[in-house]
Write a structure and sequence with these properties.
mainly alpha, 29 helices, 0% strand
Length: 603
Amino acid sequence: MLYAGTSAFHQGDLLSAEKYLTQALNHFQHKHKSDEQIDALITIGHIYRDQGKYDYAHGMFTHALYLSREHQNPEMEADALNGLAGIYHYQGDYQKSIEALEIALPIRERLGNPAKTAAVLNNLGQSYTQLGEYFESLMYLTKGHQIISQTQHEPRIEGASLVSIGNLYKDLGDYDESLKFFKEAISVGERGKTPIITAVATENLGEVLRLRGHTREALDALQKSLDLSRKLGYQPGVINSLISMANVYHWQGNHKLALTTFRDALTLSRQTNHREGEIDALIGVGKQLLAARKGHEALDYLNQALQLAEDSKRKKSIASIHSCLAECYEILGNPRAALEHFKTFHKIDQELKSEEGERRSRYLKMRFDLERSEQRAEMYRMQNETNELARKAAEALVHERTQELEQAQVEIVTRLAIAAESRDDVTGAHTWRVGRNAAMLAQEIGLPREEVEIIRLAARLHDVGKIGIPDSILMKHGVLTPEEYEHMKTHTIIGGRILSGGKSRLLQLAQEIAVSHHERWDGRGYPFGLLGETIPLSGRIVAVADVFDALTHRRPYKQAWSLKNALEELERHSGTHFDPRIVQAALKVFNTLKIVTEDAPEL
């Protein structure tokens, strides 16, 4: 019965699974078989969770946790903790979910079960995503992704990992990347005959299509997800599909249908104690009532939503609710209350925006980490396919694939450089020129050709950390205040963090340059005040290349200098700001450089 129930559960037949496993549980209790009893309790808990019966599921997992500790069964203890964490997550208590998972993780790692370790890591990533803690989320999701890519695993675990990474991309606004992961998760679910994964991935796919404005395709995907979730009895999938469909109707202006659909989702959320769904449905109902100018009714729903969102610490939801409440009180003729809610909305919105720079840098770090994870996974698969008879052929394939991956890495570096500059240099030309100038200097002082070419690419990322500096500072036309200047200087540290951990010479050199290119020869630079040759050679080269380009091109706060005046300025600061050897190289190679400037007066 235990085997039949477990098989039915993995195939998505929740009703049959519940029947078989309940019979098995009664049998094991009667026979005092503790391990089998705990296993049945945990699987029934997962069934109740998927059915939205969270109180019953909580009881099953709690009983399993007690028995596993009583009988000193750490594997079952970790499974029970993971199950409880899932209940807390659905009920919106993300911190409690994280606490349970952080107890389960070291147990899983100690037992050496890669698949279940990856499942715990994935769940931690999901909870941190909901809290908006993207750095922690990417750390856990990336680690779980690496484990899954390199080991045999269940389709459900692989699919859940893909969905979680897709959701992280969705929260970060990279819809193209999120679609790739959701489509791959659907494929895994269908191939592995795991319909719940198919349903979850399809619902998320529909939500991203909605966010991109593809309403027809979104509704098709969401209807498919809704039908499949209902067939499986998977209540979270039903709730999420209904909410996403209602948002499509709202966007289309069909407020009557949107209101009905949000209310259906709200009813089901309350029946199953699905806190996330309840908050989103309450906000949705409130918005539709506002559209109908029904202020008093909207106020009731929005205040309920605010209380739940504050309990769950969902900052984005809280901001959205205050915005709606401001509109609500305006309709009701209470401008003072409307202003207070608008002020609160504005304050939270500014906090969210101030976090955006750091979020961007963490996002770029995630892109690099996932790229490296996929490279390692590909190499692992190729090694597994290699045997003694085909060793030479396999080595040739590995070499070819390595070349392709290196080329892909160069492409990513180029895109990062453009992304970093796009906020204050829409053409991206500055990064290209600094790379060119740095390569000319490197060649002149006698560095090997291969090193010159790496510097050409790596130098383009010298200011990648500026992606973490607020626009109010980065794009300011006037003189920065001392506080603003100190904040601006942190772009060197941010850049180093984005590029940290790279195994290739290219990424290592790019990190070195990002951190050191504002150090000075006399030790008065930043961030570490390095002196003379303690500054990495690459940083000394890019310092000259960067300043030379800044002098000879127009900036919001200055006109472009002539070539003659720019070279005189470099020479004037030789031995103080710059390495004298690099300045001498610059005077030689830049003297013949043809520079097109918009305005290059003699100063």
